[in-house]
Write a structure and sequence with these properties.
The complex is a heterodimer of chains A (225) and B (252). Chain A has 9 helices and no strands. Chain A is mostly helical. In chain A, helix 1 packs antiparallel against helix 2 and helix 1 runs antiparallel to helix 8. Chain A is flat, with a radius of gyration of 21 Å. A 6-stranded mixed sheet of chain B has the order 6-7-8-3-9-10, with helices on both faces. In chain B, helix 3 packs across helix 4, helix 3 runs parallel beside helix 5 and helix 4 crosses helix 5. Classes of the chains: A mainly alpha (225), B alpha/beta (252). The interface between A and B is medium-sized, with 23 and 29 residues.
Chain lengths: 225, 252
């Protein structure tokens, strides 16, 4: 089996691509969370100007195809602001993350708004400041409510990460293409890559469902009751 | 405020929602250890009145004092006053993500700054007060409405409030569960807790209240001891209201 031996030979190289893909996804999810949650809080509790600014941000990042965003930042915005020396990997992670933040902010906004208003009233009636109430009462509930929707972000970003091929990030699809060019074996290599994406997808979702169950609370939010 | 016995003073509270003036000048003093019960038709501003006291709803006019300090217009100090003014809600509003004991602990930790051990001990003590210590580790979704309301009373008690506001505490409960909550409230009243209670439970009002205030159209229409309101012929409107109320209940 010539094809099998090619796959085996190139496997260590493929693993570097898997590593880069996982790196892209985890950084983008983390960045999306770090920006998306505060943006959600800003949209629910912030002043009118703050809500407008966040609204424009969300509109921009949800309104453009990911490939265009990637080119805009890689060829235009980052070089223009003196960040032209950033590696393709970093730019890819940032763009996926900024776009993820727009989506995540709306997931968290919906979750925060679905927490019963009585929770805030009760917290304030005990003398908690609004900030304490948000931190200790609203967010623990909102994040649990958000988790199933948030889990969607993982397969979204995982599959989107392949567009980083276009700016030359050495992620899974880029690596695959290089192997195809070198070996002139096409379908088996792409199928193997597809298989790897499916495994990554399945594995990640298993972890997220496990997390949902772990933080589940009887009669509340997500996961098993 | 010369009278040291007066823990809460409410003066000329007005509140409108849009065109509707819900409260049209309500005033009263509350002595320490007193239980005042507010009765009257729905929509006469009883619940709004309670929320104006701890500023969950901001009154348009009027002032509130707690122990001689002004609660209204107190800015950020409102959080200090709210610790001293407990509140119990019709729909309990327990924190859904926390067990009973953690519901009681939370404000002790985050507002009073107690240590974990102190807060736990105090929370368990308060749960014992309301007969819920065996349910300490249950979540709100795992207990009955009556039990949830008792936990919420423990949560209010834990802050060592000067006064507790009860906003229709049994209106969401069936008669059986209502009784277990009223038992706890009666005991608190006997033990000297200062309480303002909005309720439709006339039996409770008559047995516990030092004063009943009958509210109608945003004002206190009649007020007096239960005995006066029931037997003195001058209080026609209260008797009329209670009469209608009782007839309706019997016809139910």
């Amino acid at each position: 089996m010539e094809v099998l031996s090619i796959l085996i030979d190139w496997f260590p190289y493929v693993l570097t691509g898997v590593g880069a893909t996982i790196g892209l996804v985890l950084s983008a999810l983390a960045l999306g969370f770090a920006f998306g949650l505060p943006m959600a809080l800003g949209q629910v509790y912030g002043s009118r100007p703050m809500r407008s600014i966040i609204g424009v941000y969300v509109w921009f990042f949800r309104g453009l195809p990911i490939l265009i965003l990637l080119f805009l930042f890689w060829f235009g915005i980052f070089p223009a602001i003196g960040l032209g020396s950033l590696s393709a990997f970093v730019v890819g992670a940032i763009v996926l993350g900024l776009r993820g933040a727009a989506y995540q902010s709306q997931i968290f906004r919906g979750a925060i708004q679905s927490v019963n208003e009585g929770q805030m009233i009760a917290a304030r009636s005990l003398g908690m400041s609004r900030l304490t109430a948000i931190r200790s009462v609203i967010l623990p509930q909102a994040i649990r409510i958000a988790l199933p929707g948030w889990s969607n972000e993982y397969p979204n970003i995982l599959t989107d990460s392949a567009v980083c091929y276009a700016i030359g990030v050495a992620e899974l699809l880029t690596i695959t293409s290089r192997i195809v060019t070198q070996t002139h074996v096409t379908m088996p290599i792409y199928l193997a890559t597809a298989g790897i994406f499916i495994i990554l997808n399945y594995g990640g979702l298993r972890v997220l469902h496990g997390l949902e169950k772990r933080v589940a609370i009887p009669g509340f939010g997500s996961g098993a009751v | 405020m010369n009278d040291n016995d007066c823990v809460l003073r409410v003066e000329e509270i007005h509140k409108s929602f849009g065109d509707k003036e819900v409260l049209r000048g309500v005033s009263f003093d509350v002595r320490r250890g007193e239980t005042k019960v507010f009765i009257g038709p729905s929509g006469t501003g009883k619940s709004t009145l309670l929320r104006c006291i701890n500023q969950l709803t901001l009154p348009d006019q009027g002032r509130v004092w707690l122990d001689g300090e002004e609660v209204t217009n107190s800015g950020a100090r409102i959080n200090h006053f709210r610790q001293k003014i407990g509140m119990v809600f019709q729909n309990f509003f327990l924190f859904d993500h926390l067990t009973a004991v953690k519901n009681v602990e939370l404000a002790l930790l985050k507002v009073r700054g107690m240590s974990k051990a102190e807060a736990r001990e105090k929370a368990l003590t308060e749960l014992r007060q309301v007969g819920m210590e065996d349910w300490a580790d249950h979540y709100p979704a795992e207990i009955s409405g009556g039990q949830a309301q008792r936990v919420s009373i423990a949560r209010a008690l834990a802050m060592d409030p000067d006064v507790i506001l009860f906003d229709e505490p049994t209106s969401a409960l069936d008669p059986e569960l209502t009784r277990e909550v009223l038992e706890v409230m009666k005991r608190l009243a006997r033990e000297g807790m200062t309480m303002l209670v909005v309720t439709h439970e006339m039996g409770f009002a008559c047995s516990v209240a030092n004063e009943i205030l009958f509210m109608e159209n945003g004002v206190v229409a009649e007020r007096g001891t239960p005995d006066m309101l029931m037997h003195d012929p001058q209080f026609t409107r209260t008797k009329d209201f209670i009469g209608r109320f009782e007839t309706y209940r019997q016809g139910d």
